[in-house]
Description:
Layout: H1 2-30
Amino acid sequence: MQSIILLHFLRTHKFYQRERDLLNTVLAVAS
């Protein structure tokens, strides 16, 4: 059970990290 929660957290973290990188790219282009 604990490992499933950890795996989910890691997947979510990767997702948010990718989204943040995309957002930073958009902001850099817009500025």
